[in-house]
Design goal:
This protein is of the alpha/beta class. Helices cover 43% and strands 13% of the residues. The longest helix has 23 residues.
Length: 280
């Protein structure tokens, strides 16, 4: 039995290296325990080292791409599920195209969930200005992702905010970008960040783009799940905007134009000229 410890930071590289060695040595999934976070190390440790690297292991590119995403899912069985599918791929040609396969279907669902979490992180991280002076601005944010998406999403923020120093703290992993260098550190409790005038701007922006006539609460909470509201400055306005939506729509109706715009009237006039029988 192999117990494979996987670090909190660099999980993807560690899993990929271990999986290559195990599959190359022909180790069955039933003989592997994946330990992420050190929860099983003392209970199941056997002292068996990983097999040495062997010849290059070939796997479909579609599996490699899927695994690069699924390793960040919160399901503790994700590593075993991936290795189990990799084991089957040795002899089952076309498995990655079999939409009816339950193992593959589950991994595809996990892949989709991680990508959705990455999208939410890009949309809902709110930085606060630390006002530390110096040549580069400095910002920090607190975020609580559903899955372990800090590492795979951090390069996006590095590209987007390359001209400033910043930190995104989460319960599991903290990422820092200082002087153009990206680094990862253990998670931490929510830091005490200073108030930021930009938070009022987020609220103003959200209130101005809110369209009560197109309000669909279920669709809105699907795009902006309630679990994120506590860390979004604009979320404090949501309940009042929803409560006043019907009244606002009625005001919009009452304030609506009673005559058609000039352009619309000119079009009607031309139609009447072409066909005098057109009803008013």
């Amino acid at each position: 039995m192999y117990t494979i410890p996987l670090p909190q930071i660099g999980t993807d590289v560690a899993w990929r290296d271990a999986a290559k060695r195990l599959i190359g040595a022909g180790v069955s999934p039933n003989d592997v325990l994946w330990d992420h976070g050190g929860n099983m190390g003392e209970l199941f440790a056997t002292g068996t080292p990983l097999p040495p690297p062997t010849r290059r292991i070939k796997a479909p590119q579609s599996f490699v791409q899927m695994a690069e995403t699924v390793v960040w899912h919160k399901d503790p069985q994700r590593f075993a599920r991936l290795y189990g599918l990799l084991w089957r791929l040795r002899h089952e040609n076309g498995l990655m195209q079999d939409r009816a396969d339950p193992d593959l279907a589950r991994l595809r669902q996990m892949e989709k969930a991680v990508r959705r979490c990455q999208h939410k992180m890009k949309a809902f991280v709110r930085f606060r200005d630390l006002r530390q002076g110096g040549e580069r601005r400095s910002f920090a944010a607190w975020f609580e992702p559903t899955h372990h998406t800090v590492e795979p999403t951090a390069p996006f923020f590095a590209r987007r905010f390359a001209d400033m120093d910043w930190m995104i703290a989460t319960p599991d992993v903290t990422v820092q970008f200082v002087d153009g260098n990206l680094s990862f550190h253990p998670g931490q409790p929510k830091p005490d960040l200073p108030e930021d005038s930009a938070e009022a701007l987020w609220g103003t922006y959200f209130c101005n783009i809110f369209n009560p006539a197109r309000l669909k609460v279920q669709a809105m909470t699907s795009e902006m799940p309630k679990k994120y509201w506590k860390n979004l400055p604009e979320a404090q306005h949501i309940q009042s905007l929803i409560a006043g939506a019907e009244e606002k729509v009625q005001q919009m109706r009452e304030a609506g134009p009673t005559i058609p715009p000039d352009r619309a009237q000119r079009i009607l006039d031309r139609l009447h000229q072409k066909d005098p029988d057109v009803d008013e």
